[in-house]
Design goal:
Number of strands: 7
Distance between the termini: 43 Å
Shape: flat
Structural class: alpha+beta
Order of helices and strands: EEEEHHEEHHHHE
Bound molecules: zinc ion
Largest sheet: 3 strands, antiparallel
């Protein structure tokens, strides 16, 4: 029986065959193409682009760098509904801290009002913001996270534009 070369799923019927290898569908084929494109970004071009971004100006405030990825964490709840998300942004450190402080106080006010996920996830999101506020990325060089971002951007700019924000998690308790 055929097995998908990307995800390892057993292909019962249909599927795609490219240069002798089998894939479930176009998604698995596209995923493989992206992985190959990401792998083949030349290291020197990656470092150059990442350093340029890192030493450039902040696109939020226009201030000087270092620029890196700063992630802020938010949560809100309403009775049985709780929704949380983490949003990575490319900015200077002070813009990053501003977002993390904003999300910290938003979550402190709005996170708790859901059962049971508000009680469980609000402390998690608050601590994540505090960690981000207290721990600065290395100002001398781009973080691994920023390198990964630039690598994907160089590999496939069009696809990357669609994936800017992380989708929120939502949970609704039943019963
Ligand atoms: Zn597959
Ligand atoms: Zn800024």
């Amino acid at each position: 029986m055929a097995i998908c070369n990307t995800c390892g799923t057993t292909i019962l019927f249909g599927g795609k065959k490219v240069t002798g290898l089998r894939y479930c569908n176009d998604d698995c084929l596209a995923q493989l193409a992206l992985a190959i494109a990401v792998d083949s970004v030349p290291q020197d071009a990656l470092i150059r682009a990442a350093q340029e971004l890192h030493q450039g100006l902040c696109s939020h405030c226009g201030g000087s760098g270092p620029i890196d990825i700063h992630t802020s964490h938010q949560i809100w709840s309403m009775l049985l509904m709780t929704s949380w998300k983490s949003t990575p942004r490319i900015s200077c450190r002070s813009c990053g801290i501003k977002q993390q402080l904003g999300d910290f106080f938003f979550s402190l006010l709005c996170g708790w009002w859901g059962v049971p996920w508000g009680f469980i996830m609000t402390p998690v999101q608050l601590v994540r913001n505090l960690v981000g506020i207290l721990r600065a990325p290395d100002p001398m060089q781009p973080s691994e996270q920023l390198l990964g971002h630039v690598r994907r951007m160089l590999a496939e700019p069009a696809r990357f534009a669609e994936e800017a924000d992380e989708k929120p998690h939502s949970l609704q308790s039943t019963g």
